[in-house]
Amino acid sequence: MQVRECLRIPLAVPVVRASLERDARVLLLAAATDLSAVHGVAATTFAMIAKRAGLTPAMVHYYFIDREQLLDAVVEERIAPLIASVWGPVNASDAPAEIIRGVVERMLAGIAADALDFRRPGCERY
Asked: What's the whole-model pTM score?
């Protein structure tokens, strides 16, 4: 197995067919977030997002008129809540070491809560 495959970021939501309208939108946002992290925002296409989510490109356009609307939704619904949970509880009067410790702990807790198991057969050494 190639190193690139082992280091690839997995989906935040498993690839399954969406059975409800809300599920399709969640799958699309997760796919857009993950693919943008791997390939960059500019290189991530609606077709790539649809394929990763197990939907058609037409479904992406059904939920999001254009890239800008999709990116706005990713930021508002996926990224902003994580940033708020990490930085929101910061108290400026705390010692710098306490601020840093709290930020790091909240960041790691957020990552752990949203992460899947990165271990895959054949990737043990990466």
From this structure: 0.64
